[in-house]
Specification:
With about 400 residues, this protein is an alpha/beta fold. It folds into two domains: about 210 residues, Glycogen Phosphorylase B (Rossmann fold, 3-Layer(aba) Sandwich), CATH 3.40.50; about 160 residues, Rossmann fold (3-Layer(aba) Sandwich). Helix content is about 40%, strand content about 20%. The protein has 15 helices and 14 strands. The protein has an eight-stranded mixed β-sheet, with helices on both faces.
Length: about 400
């Protein structure tokens, strides 16, 4: 029997942080590959080190037959742009130092890129030094995400970003994208490269034994996930406030934490929005209870070109629970919802449209939502099958050769 390929996964986030790369790595380690991970000390989403971990210069642990090498992370980044940028720089620098000592023994390097594209720089260094083929799975689109966070697109910034992005993608042998709309944008920086689309699959799955969360009495809409600036929840909250004045039976649940949570609480208080509950962050194991108890799930993002290409991972989770989707965004997700009739959509910049969407779902309470449920199930089975996607990604990594 041939030796298993040795794969080093480079990722900003890994267990106990809750990201899809945990599932991918665990399946690979139990099957075709010997898997190690290079990452930071765990700190997401609060920007503080997880209990039981230390923020040492270097540490090692083992999880599910995976050797995890961790290095120092800059904390406090949730509420400080300066510390966030410093953390990006720290990852690239510390990761590059680590690969000098660790990477030589691997057959492949796999980069899970959520957040800064610069986290791929250690992989690029290892490729150049040791001739190891590199695959990158892009979850966040640069430079679009940089501008979406509020950086002004000046000529000097665009010039610098374009060259860094082009250098990184040109230095990767395999480019995978989580959203099909990313491919054309990435191709601008990697002409001639073969770019493959591998979407995320749901990592929150129905659990028959899960207790339903004790949501308020009434018709419950739920948003689950990061509560940040880009999620456009200010408009969702205000649109809900308009709807709840017309129909006090509807409820809005926001399950998650992030840099914008306190802002939303302030808006709800100052503008006297009734019927909204902020649940804070819940462990992944608690989420089936919230999903099961909800009537409709909300997905929302700000209306920017880059974000309109994005299909957030929560979309697949909503489908897994066969829930109607209230899509308060444009672009790729709106196209999916409308094409497959899995819910209703609203313009993310129009409060009246958001208000009307809440009321429209309520008008279909009971049997009127059944078509959405069946369509969600069919879309999930057709496009987001976990086993098929994991096996296909593994095949692209296994068959890869170094490309000059």
């Amino acid at each position: 029997m041939p030796d298993k390929l040795k794969v080093l996964i480079i990722t900003e986030r890994f267990y106990p942080e809750e990201f899809i790369i945990n599932d991918l790595a665990a399946v690979w380690a139990a099957g075709d590959f010997c898997v190690d991970v290079l990452t930071q000390a765990p700190s997401y989403p609060f920007g503080i080190i997880f209990k039981g971990y230390s923020n040492n210069f270097f540490a090692a642990e083992r999880w599910k037959d995976i050797n995890i090498s961790r290095f120092f992370t800059v904390t406090g980044y949730r509420d400080s742009l300066f510390l966030k940028l410093l953390n990006y720089f720290s990852f690239a620098l510390a990761g590059s130092i680590a690969v000098l000592f660790l990477a030589r023994k691997y057959d492949r390097i796999f980069v899970y890129q959520t957040g800064p594209l610069t986290l791929a720089l250690p992989a690029v260094l290892a490729r150049r030094l040791y001739g190891i083929p590199v695959t990158i799975w892009t979850q966040d689109l640069w430079p679009d995400m940089v501008y979406a966070y509020g950086f002004k697109k000046t000529r000097p910034l665009a010039w610098c970003l374009d060259r860094v992005i082009g250098f990184i993608y040109h230095s990767c042998d395999n480019i995978l994208v989580s959203c099909s709309g990313f491919a054309s944008r990435v191709a601008q920086y990697a002409p001639g490269k073969d770019i493959k689309h591998f979407p995320n699959w749901p990592t929150v799955l129905p659990d028959g034994g899960a207790e339903r969360a004790a949501l308020p009495a009434g018709f419950n809409f739920t948003f689950a996930g990061n509560v940040g600036k880009l999620q456009n929840l200010e408009n969702v909250l205000r649109g809900f406030g308009l709807a709840s004045k017309i129909n006090p039976e509807i409820r809005l649940n926001i399950v998650g934490d992030g840099s914008h949570l306190e802002t939303l609480k302030t808006i709800a208080h100052n503008e006297k929005v009734k019927g909204v509950t902020f649940w804070g962050r819940k462990n992944l194991s608690a989420m089936p209870g919230f999903f099961n108890a909800s009537d409709v799930m909300i997905i929302s993002l700000s209306n920017t070109p880059g974000l309109n290409l994005t299909v957030p991972a929560k979309f697949q989770a909503y489908l897994a629970f066969h829930k109607p989707v209230f899509c308060v965004m444009g672009g790729a997700v709106r196209a999916l919802v409308e094409k497959h009739n899995t819910g209703f959509c609203a313009d993310p910049d129009r409060l009246e449209a958001i208000r009307d969407g809440f009321l429209k779902f309520y008008s279909l309470r009971g049997g009127g939502l059944a078509d959405f449920v069946g369509n969600s199930r069919r879309l999930l089975e057709a496009e987001y099958d976990r086993g098929r996607i994991i096996a296909a990604i593994a095949a692209t990594v296994r068959d890869l050769t170094l490309k000059v």
